Amino acid sequence: MHLTLHLTDRCNLACRYCYARPGTADMTLATALAAIDECTRGAENPGVIFFGGEPLLREDLIFDVIAACERHTPHRFHYKVTTNGTLVTPAFLARAAAARLHVAVSCDGAPPTQDRHRVTAAGEGSSAALLPRLEAVLAAQPYAPVMMTVNPDTAADFAENVRFLRARGAAYVISSVNFAADWDAAAWRRLKRAYRQLAAWYLDAYRREEKFYFAAFDKRIATRIWPGRGASCQLGKRQVSVAPDGTYYPCVQFVGRPEFAIGRVGEGIDAARRGCIFERNERAKPSCAGCVLLGRCNNRCGCLNFSTTGSLDAVPPFFCAHERFLVPLADSLAETLYAERNAMFLQRHYNPAFPVLSILEDMSG
What we know:
11 strands, alpha/beta
């Protein structure tokens, strides 16, 4: 079970594509700890994710929660914070290291792309504030995920932005396409061209035995090698989001939408309500009938479907086109590297111990 605590509705940025509803609400320590106790009781390997708004606006609360968890609960928790990175300081990184807090940073790439959508309330770009701090995060936590969003007006620079992040030390890049945007035919051509450029870069990097993870390809390759892995979002089952006021929701994009509330801190999760939402999300989508990618694509991502179509039951057509292009491209990469018996590829995708061995190798090097 993963519990996402939305510590605040406040944010120091006003990103133009952000789905979150801005506000002023803050979570209390009592609410956070009650939610953790209520939702992780009996769980194995539970995780606590600090989210916002911008969670570093509540930095002290993050470490108060971790300290309380370490003192008073029987679990070995793992902790993660997802931040826009602009408030990171050396003191925060030192506290994060001591608390075993993993940091994930949102960054869309080089300054022209970062500053196009990830802006302050005054419309000013955030790259100048972020990039030195991003490099500090990656120096302190080399495997910190960097999460980028690709929009129609930034698709042409997508490949260059991935390479930009890699050159600054990012070893773990997670790109998300903004499916809610208007992807016309020209933008779609730009995105496909960028994916092909990235495929060539991916092959070259593996042949150089460069250690990195690029989710757009690696996640889809994993669904071929390990059928069923990651094919369902398990809406409300594997993770629960907690709003600042203590209301439970099945995932981050539903926070603040009363029709998706599944309980409240102090009253517990309404199992029937959660089950109803989960079952509705899991049911077969009519538009997916007969698709060769069933079981591999993320057509049951409730957040994606709701944010783009307004319904859990409908998959956005552009998502289908995207997966029908990207999955075969990823498969082709896998087939090439497997045929070459590429050692890095085989270790990453066929050796379950690779993540641990990789870290040990880095520490010894």
